[in-house]
Amino acid sequence: MSFKKNNIRQPQNQSFSWLLAISLVIFSSLSYGQDNSDNQENNANKPVIKDGFEWQILLDLSLIYDPTIIAGIEQEKLSEYLLPGLLVDISYKGFYLQSNQRRSHVLLGATELGYQLFIEEEWQLDLILKAYMQGYDSDSLIEYGGGDEELLTGLKEREVTIGAAIRYSQYFENALFRIDFAYGSSGEDENENHVGGLIIDSFYSYLLPYKNWDIYLGAGLTYFSQDIINYYIGVSPDEVLATRPEYNASGSFRGQAEVYAQYPLSESWSFHTGITHSYFSNNVKESPLVDTNQVTQVTLGVMYVF
Amino acid sequence: MYFNVGKGIAIVLPTLLYCLLVCKQVSANELTVDNEVVFTALPEQCVTLRQGRSCFATVELQWQSPSKQSFCLYQEGEEKQLACWKNSNNVQIKIDFESNKSVKYQLRKETNNKVVAEAQVEVSWQHKNTARKRRWRLF
């Protein structure tokens, strides 16, 4: 059984296009009607200095082993391990589009659109729009990606979950802690009702410099509300088969541990590698759609800085 | 007149070609003061991920001279010598390089401390260390 990365990532591409379109509108509209001075909003007591215009584009050429918890989806062909990605970072007058380089495996779905509400030396409060959950389309997987027909047939498409969040970030000497309180918006359920719910996503990242290496140690804990988890791994009455009973999922947690390292090869090229282990709540395994509640992802590649 | 112009071209063109070839070979890390002494540092560039970070490398310094010489090796701006050689004409030395800015090495005569050759290791980086990019890197 195999699946094509391009197929399963189509929802992320769509979400990225959406984010990109919104950001372009915002950035282009802001470029008119405002002066070119530095982005400073002066408060009588405390000046808040927001990011000026900065940009950065990186090309990521990676090999990735990216298993999912959904049964019947596996990587087999070499092409399914290859994953080029274009990572874009732009900031302007407090608005920004930023990519998470260490999580570029979800291609452009790791891109976030944000606005800085408050910036202090040690902490920051932002509004964020980003994809929190990958979608999957069983029909495409079966037809083009070698997905297991017996396990996947008759399942409706699960769309990507886009979340609007308020993010608190705390900066330490060589570390960052952030927590997002998000409302996640998924697709529609079997009754064509919109599915949405709470997501609380936290992550701690510690930078350990060693010689010319940047080594990041990370840990994360995420809560997904019942509606969202049920949308992805629940089995609705019209999806029931003899081998697939109806199932209603409950809210779940995901814990993550990560090690990522980056090394400069030249002024433009760098090598990077990482391993991320994700552990979902035990109740996730009760779903007939789920194979395992633990997955380990490995990446290896090079990045080019434009 | 025609002869003079032709002679001029005959002199200038080879000189230009020679200069293009030879000048091209004098790389950024080879800042020779005494033309007879060739002093090089390899690698000539050390790259870090972020501006301001110390760059680490094992740098090979080499000097060659047609005649035997007594030289000492210094880091520019430092008074402490890194190494000295007596009556040598071809020397290689490896040093542990650690710096967040470019470093120039000097070869000085042992007798009068006069600089005879210089070689530089340039420190560069991939990402400028702005506040925002610092946060990006932590992300």
UniProtKB/TrEMBL annotation, chain B:
InterPro entries: DUF3019 (IPR021559). This is DUF3019 domain-containing protein.
